[in-house]
Amino acid sequence: MQPIEIKKDIFWVGAVDYDLRDFHGYSQVSEGTSYNAYLIKDAKNVLFDSVSASFAGAMLCRLAKALPLEKVDYIVCNHLELDHAGALAELVDRCKPEKIFCSQMGVKSMQGYFACKDWPVQAVKNGESLKIGSRTLQFFETRMLHWPDSMVSYIPEDKLLISNDAFGQNIASTVRYADEVSEEYLLNAVEAYYYNIVLPFSPQVTGALKALGGLDIDLIAPDHGLMFRGKQSVGYILDAYARLAEQKTLKRALIIYDSMWHSTEKMAYAVANGLEDAGVPSRVMSLKHNHHSQVMTELASCGAVLAGSSTHNNGVLPAMAAMLTYMKGLRPKNRVGGAFGSYGWSGEGPKMIHEWLASMDMEMPAPFVKTQWAPGHESFGQCHALGKAVGQALLAKCGG
Ligand code: FEO
């Protein structure tokens, strides 16, 4: 449990949580995550962010190997969500810092979470600088990326951006740099993180990339997952974020469904055939076997969403209601949509799904398809036509 030097006198002092599966109560992570905290040793020793409360001991142990805890002069809280501030009370108690810096909104989060009236808290403004010896800290607010309190810290002398949640990934590993893993693995982790956490704040991402665009950066150190070192790796993640924020329409479709007695399931595969005949590849995901956060990750590479559910109690099945609620909250843009489903006697489900997708500003090129009891020849034809119509609309949107 050693601190890891990432630049001269700058150390990673975080913790790796291999057992985490439920990230923040809404997203499933397959391999855990890391809580990255960083220490700069200078005339003033500065700690950036901390870890989840249950990893306080691990972090303090690592930190104490870099310097005696009471030598930490400043703590910078870029964001007060408890995966980065859960250990803060214990840290303050052990280190007794001279100052704790956060954004003005961060003061409110801190006061909400901690009995901190006696803490030496100082709010910093957007663009404010602070000399800590041979280095300068510059603070840039990234409000709503992804909380009101969020900010990043830039150290120009080291070309280092400590970016908090921005550019993070839920990767649990002894590896610390993005250039040490395959690009496919990295991209999946970046997209999973973006599409489940950052997506609603894409306008703020575009704004932040513009505001930070003038900085000379050769190391991005996020608070989750791997760091990006060197111009190529830094350029990679900045470009990836610009692309993800743009939500450019992609030529691939996602079919999600939940089914009681396999009728809606059969319809889903007929829809996939229609897409195939339009020349659009697709992926079918059953909501019984795929968590809503896995579906959102898949949406990163899809320009169309076709959703189907059996009608249940005059509505849709619970997993579909949860899925569409989650998806709508994450505000996907620039998609084409379609709805389908089977029913026994009332049949409200497909219309509800159609309206749900339309309320996400999806282009809906065809009416919803509903089938009573079990799909037959005619119904399969309608599903095929739905898939084909959505596929053709998607191709038109993509420019062919
Ligand atoms: Fe917004 Fe990683 O916490």
Task: Describe the protein.
The protein has 400 residues and is of the alpha/beta class. The protein is 36% helix and 23% strand. It contains twelve helices and 24 strands. The strands form six sheets. A seven-stranded mixed β-sheet has the order 1-2-7-8-9-10-11. It has a six-stranded mixed β-sheet with strand order 12-13-14-15-16-17. Strands 19-18-20-23-24 form a five-stranded parallel β-sheet, sandwiched between helices. α5 packs across α9 and α6 runs antiparallel to α7. It starts with a strand and ends with a helix. The model has no long low-confidence stretch (mean pLDDT 97). It binds MU-OXO-diiron (FEO). The site of MU-OXO-diiron has 9 residues, from α2.
